[in-house]
C-alpha cells in the first residue's frame, strides 16, 4: 500500500468523523476535505477495509449538513436531471475524466482487483450517488468532477460557511 497524499488522521479527527457518522469510522486514511472551521467534511477511505472488504468509495462525505443537503437533492429527483445532462458530449467527456482521476487516486494507494475499473457515484456513464460525487468534488477541488460540482452548487449546503461548530466548541486538529 502506498502512502496517501494527505497526512494520517489524528485520533481527534477520527473521533469527529465517528461522531459525524454516528458509528466508528473504518479505514480512514486521511481527511480529504475540510469545513472552513477545520472539521472533516470528506475522508479518504482505504480501498480495502481493515476486515478485508473491498471498498470502492475512496472519498466519503461525512459532514452531516452536507450529507443531509445532498440527500435532499437525491430525494427530490435531481439525479435523473443530472443524468440527462450527460448527453452533452463535453460534459460526458469531463465526467469520464473524473472517473479516470478517481481511479488513479485510489489505485495510487492500493490496487484492489475486486473493484478495479469501478469508481463511485455511477461514473463514468450514470449518476447514481450524489454523496460520492460531491465527496470527490470537494476532495479533488472545483473543475475535476462536473456532476459533483453541480450537485454542490444545487445543494443548500456550502463549503464556504461553517454550520458544524457551536460558539466555543472545540475543532478537530
Search tags:
single chain, 173 residues, mainly alpha, 3-stranded antiparallel sheet, 6 helices, 3 strands, disordered C terminus
Topology:
Elements: H1 11-21, E1 28-34, E2 40-45, E3 59-61, H2 64-75, H3 78-85, H4 89-107, H5 130-140, H6 146-154
Antiparallel strand pairs: 1-2, 2-3
Task: Give a structural overview.
This protein is mostly helical and 173 residues long. The chain has helices spanning 11-21, 64-75, 78-85, 89-107, 130-140, 146-154; strands at residues 28-34, 40-45, 59-61. It has a 3-stranded antiparallel beta sheet, with helices on both faces. A hairpin with a 5-residue loop joins strand 1 (28-34) and strand 2. Helix 5 packs across helix 6. The chain is globular, with a radius of gyration of 16 Å.
What is this entry, summarized?
The protein has 173 residues and is mostly helical. The protein has six helices and three strands; from the N terminus they run αβββααααα.
